[in-house]
Amino acid sequence: MRCHPKMLLFAALLLAAAFFPNAGIAFATADTMQDKPADEEKETEYGEDEYNAYDAASKEPDFSKRGAMLLAFIDKYPKSSLMSYIKPAYENLLHECSQAKQYNLLEPLAEKWLKLNSGDIRTLAYIAEAAEKLGHDQKCVDTLEEIYRLEPSGAMAVNILQTYKKIKNQAKVTEWTEKIFKMPEYDTDFGLRYDFMTRYMEAKNSAKAAEYARLTLKSADLVKEPSKDVQEQMRKVRYACHLVIGTGLYEDGKFAEAIKTLQQALRFEKHGEPYYYIGMCQWKQDQIEEATLSFARAERQGGDIAPQAKEKVEQLYKALHNNTTIGIEKIYRKAIEGPAQ
What is the pLDDT of residues 37-64, one digit of tens each? Predict the structure, then answer.
């Protein structure tokens, strides 16, 4: 029912072929540099020490040492004509660290590169990836927000939201939820709204739960041509939403509205809870016979609410029959045979 993955999609979103069009970034060799046209010779001049430093750095197998050597080259030869090869060499280093899952190296290497390349989305993505894998959740989400500021997208907003959920920052969860709900591409994401409904239910905040239940229903109504699996999800979701709204109306004393909404819930699934709260609404309106039948129907459905429903049936029946349950079976028979709500 959740429509959103719990894993962050860094590779799919930010490290795709657009950033790495080849399987790897080929390093320039002495031969390829010497093959440049004559009019470029002046531009590509470099000393032997300079080239040897570049060559040693680019071929160093140890990730940490390679990073230090490449950065040392930048510091020592900032105007070198070889600088155009240093940049892809360092970016390839970050890519290799990511592929090798060396996140303890990837994070600091990417942070050092970001200082020299402020606002580079690829580098920020590596930092976020490493931080997430290392459990540095606050750094991860701060970096994701920086990426979002540079290149807003719905997918990134959802990643940010999921991370704030993970660290239980409710203020930020609310902020990013509101952002996402305003994005047209998520108008039909009823699962996202349903998730918040259940969270507020668990927090016993019936008003907010009802608010998100209504948003969930509105979103579900916008889904076009749902698959059979989605239809089944929507049926269960609609039942739960109507139940949440209906019980909220009952708690607010809006008994007639509550009954109509709870009857809507029963259109999607038959369970004891809607019958039970319909009975409570009828009882509050002094509709004793109707309430007794509703409680009997609730009991017949079974589940956790059945014992409470049975208690209510006997309580109301006794009040009308000299404090006895003689003949109470006719109530259950009528509840089964009569038209259910």
Answer: 334 444 446 889 999 999 999 999 999 9
Tokens linked to 171? 């203020």
Average pLDDT for 184-194: 93
DSSP state letters, 19-86: T--SSS-PPP-HHHHHTS-GGGTTTT---HHHHHHHHHHHH--SHHHHHHHHHHHHHH-TT-TTHHHH
Orientation angle between helical segments 255-268 and 272-284, nearest 10 degrees: 160
Q: Does residue 295 contact residue 331 with C-beta atoms inside 8 Å?
A: no
Pick the closest to residue 310 from 324, 323, 298 (CA basis): 298
- In the chain, the amino acid numbered 69 is M
Whole-angstrom distance, CA of residue 248 vs CA of residue 209: 9
pTM score: 0.68
For 89-104, write each residue's pLDDT tens digit: 999 999 999 999 999 9
Domains and CATH numbers, the chain: 1-184 (1.25.40.10)
Does 32 have pLDDT greater than 90?
A: no
User: Cβ contacts of residue 201 below 8 Å, gap of 6+?
Assistant: 209, 244
